[in-house]
Design the sequence.
């Protein structure tokens, strides 16, 4: 791979054996976001991946908010 | 008493925040903004998934978004916001080419930093802005993994480098020769070769069009949108 980055390579390619947080991309109400999934059926919003600036004003989609998911039966 | 009402509403809002949400709802809110906001942050991620401590902008997100912007009638223009340390050359150039080939007006604004492969993305827009305090690091590309020390390797790297340099000189006012000089200058960056240009300096070199903030960028974008609307033949 060829990289053009201002960060030193040792910082970018740190030890990959360390446990990584469980991130997942989901879409809620048409807004794509990155969430951190934990053991209980909960997910915390890490960041939005939307291009519509208005989505970032939605109080429900603020980073750090917890979403609970209920499996549909 | 009346003063308490907003507080109660605030609490209600908060409970809504934590409210149970169901997945898979497709209630798309109406789009109020006619401007699409593309943020390029952290590392530009390409073919390899980066280690999780990196904040990344993935090309599989960005490229379809650009296609959608170009196609969607409700969106009139795009503002590219950059605060990136660079990243994958192929992915960076792909995003830059996509932005450069758009018909809809685009402006870019460099906030904080628009380093390395962020430079071609910044210059790809119709008009580029940089805030007074933002910086751009210009330095040679790196090859990860095993580098075999034969002349071919250097030739290959040189070729890859030329793609970046050519794109930048084609889309900005800086010449190929000047940019190459900036890229290989020694003594400015600690432990590395290259240059760091800040705000006005980037404009003076011709790399970026103007110094300005978000209002300048949006004003310019709206001007370009109006200009394009005027050009459209009446049908």
Sequence:
């Amino acid at each position: 791979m060829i990289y053009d980055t201002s960060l030193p390579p040792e910082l970018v390619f740190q030890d990959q054996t360390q446990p990584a947080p469980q991130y997942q991309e989901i879409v809620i109400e048409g807004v794509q976001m990155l969430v951190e999934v934990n053991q209980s059926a909960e997910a915390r919003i890490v960041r939005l991946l939307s291009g519509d600036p208005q989505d970032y004003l939605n109080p429900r989609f603020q980073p750090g908010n917890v979403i609970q998911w209920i499996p549909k039966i | 008493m009346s003063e308490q009402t907003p507080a109660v509403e605030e609490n209600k809002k908060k409970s809504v925040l934590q409210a149970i949400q169901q997945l898979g709802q497709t209630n798309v809110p109406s789009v109020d903004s006619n401007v699409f906001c593309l943020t390029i942050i952290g590392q530009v991620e390409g073919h390899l998934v980066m280690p999780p401590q990196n904040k990344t902008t993935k090309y599989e997100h960005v490229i379809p978004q650009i296609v959608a912007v170009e196609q969607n009638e409700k969106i009139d223009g795009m503002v590219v916001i950059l605060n990136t340390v660079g990243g994958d050359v192929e992915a960076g150039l792909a995003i830059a080419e996509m932005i450069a080939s758009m018909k809809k007006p685009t402006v870019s604004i460099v906030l904080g930093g628009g380093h390395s492969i962020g430079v071609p993305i910044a210059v790809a827009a119709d008009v580029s802005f940089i805030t007074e305090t933002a910086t751009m690091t210009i330095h040679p590309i790196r090859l990860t993994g095993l580098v075999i020390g034969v002349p071919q390797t250097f030739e290959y790297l040189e070729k890859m480098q030329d793609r970046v340099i050519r794109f930048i000189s084609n889309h900005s006012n800086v010449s190929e020769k000047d940019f190459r000089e900036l890229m290989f200058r020694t003594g400015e960056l600690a432990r590395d070769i290259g240059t760091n240009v800040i705000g006005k300096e980037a404009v003076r070199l011709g790399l970026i069009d103007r110094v300005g903030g978000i209002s300048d960028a949006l004003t310019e974008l709206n001007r370009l949108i109006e200009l394009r609307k005027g050009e459209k033949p009446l049908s």
Notes: Chain A has a mean pLDDT of 81.
